[in-house]
Design a protein that fits this description.
Number of domains: 3
Radius of gyration: 22 Å
Bound molecules: flavin-adenine dinucleotide
Strand content: 5-15%
CATH superfamily of the largest domain: Butyryl-CoA Dehydrogenase, subunit A, domain 3
Mean pLDDT: 95
Structural class: alpha+beta
Oligomer: single chain
Number of helices: 13
Order of helices and strands: HHHHHHHEEEEEEEEHEEHHHHH
CATH class of the largest domain: Mainly Alpha
Low-confidence stretches: none
């Protein structure tokens, strides 16, 4: 088995172009949006700046890196996508500008795999064209989001329609979405608890779908909504995948989507480490630069080692997906590790920056607020640990060795 993460000249060229685009177009526009306060002071200029970046990305062929060419995408595999996502996420708007942002990116994968041709034309095409927004509505306030077999939102059939009632929250993008992939319980007595739920495509707005509020979070009110669903009627042709396949569809969606989060988190952690080193080379205290102090070097070294581990884990999990190998455990381990690494590295970078790191004069404070949810959304740490342990125990029981559970590598 060869281990070679070098890129083909074509992919290296794409990576270079993405990096240059982020440096030359996205970061300067972001700086202008922030310095002129466009988001709050001049909404038209703000939207114009955003859409102009998207148009430039589209014209430059840096559009939909995760989608196949027939859907207007760059047709990259997951290893290649890791390079692009990790470049794009060095800026705040980068993934959105390239149209590979959560949750649309995961929803595009889901529609590509599960939707009928008609559904693809109606929902996937506008998403790919950048003309629509989407959301994925699964979590409910009343029951543990970690266990989708508990979902209470319920759908019953009435002729050619399904009637849905329930309550969802933390639905990202819902306030601006044109449609939702909604998970509801349709089977009261399934053979398996995992076969109780079904996915439906819901147009927004629809009678019976009400946005109660955008939830205020520790990083502000940035588009995670609480939704009340009351006698919402959808035609049976709006079912996505088969009856009882909602759990399967959710799991299918979450595999690559979790890894895509990891790719973006690696970019954020690398930015934090770059800033940590830069600050340590420029701040003088107690007779020397911070970079010359062992306590600071330990923080730099720990962050460097952890970032290296994170990159290897993500590349390996991506490689397994690309090669049709079982990837659940590797994605689970990567998601857990990268989410925790991200929190640690940003925290250390804030420490090295002192009061400046705590201020909002650098992006670190904002990054820290966002990083916190990484440890429980898309699978809480403890749930991933539970699954990882189950697979490790099963591997040992099956073969007398845990080796296959630790990445199934040749060492
Ligand atoms: C920023 C953000 C965006 C989100 N976007 C979406 C979205 O677009 N769509 C959507 O449907 N949802 C979304 N969510 C919700 C997210 O998926 C849930 O928060 C997540 O699934 C956890 O569910 P919960 O919050 O109900 O926590 P719970 O399930 O109540 O879990 C709480 C804690 O209990 C512990 N725990 C749970 N199970 C176990 C176990 N088996 N063993 C040990 N400990 C355990 C863990 O510590 C866990 O953190 C989002 C959340 C956030 C914060």
């Amino acid at each position: 088995m060869s281990i070679d993460f070098s890129l083909t000249p074509e992919i290296e060229e794409i990576r270079g172009r993405v990096r240059a685009f982020i440096d030359d177009v996205v970061k300067p526009t972001e700086a202008r949006i922030q310095s002129e306060g466009l988001e709050h002071n001049d909404r038209d200029a703000y939207l114009h700046a955003l859409l102009d970046m998207r148009k430039q990305a589209y014209d430059a062929g840096l559009w939909l890196p995760h989608m196949p060419a027939e859907w207007g995408g760059m047709g990259l595999g997951h290893v290649e996508l890791a390079m692009v996502q990790a470049e794009a996420a060095k800026s705040y708007y980068g993934p959105w500008v390239l149209n590979c942002q959560a949750p649309d990116e995961g929803n595009m994968h889901t529609l590509l795999h599960w939707a009928t041709d008609e559904q693809k034309q109606k929902y996937l095409k506008p998403l790919c064209d950048g003309r629509a927004w989407s959301c994925f509505a699964m979590t409910e306030p009343e029951v543990a989001g970690s266990d989708p077999t508990l979902i209470r939102t319920h759908a019953y059939q009435d002729g050619e329609e399904w009637v849905i009632n329930g309550h969802k929250w933390f639905i990202s993008n819902a306030h601006r979405a044109n449609f939702a992939i909604l998970i509801a319980r349709t089977e009261d007595d399934p053979d398996l608890p995992q076969a109780a739920n079904t996915a439906f495509l819901v147009d927004i707005p629809s009678e019976g779908w009400t946005e109660v509020r955008q939830i205020e979070t520790m990083h502000g009110s940035t588009g995670h909504s609480e939704i009340l669903i009351e006698d919402l009627r959808v035609h049976e042709s709006q079912m996505l995948g088969g009856r009882g396949q909602g759990h399967l569809l959710g799991q299918y969606r979450l595999g690559p989507a979790r890894l895509a989060h990891c790719m973006r988190w690696i970019a954020q952690a690398e930015t934090a480490l770059d800033m940590m080193v830069d600050r340590s080379l420029n701040r003088f205290a107690h007779g020397s630069l911070l970079a010359e102090k062992q306590g600071i070097q330990w923080m730099i070294a720990d962050s460097t080692m952890e970032l290296y581990q994170a990159k290897l884990m993500v590349l390996h999990a991506a490689y397994r997906i690309d090669n049709g190998l079982e990837f659940k455990s590797e994605v689970s381990m990567a998601k857990h590790f990268v989410a925790n690494m991200l929190n640690r590295v940003i925290d250390r970078s804030i420490q090295v920056h002192g009061a400046l790191g705590y201020s909002t004069d650098t992006p670190l404070a904002h990054m820290y607020q966002h990083a916190r949810w990484a440890r429980f959304a898309d699978g809480a740490d403890e749930v991933h640990q539970m699954r990882i342990a189950q697979r490790t125990i099963a591997a040992y029981k099956d073969s007398g060795s845990t080796a296959s559970a630790t990445g199934d590598l040749p060492i």
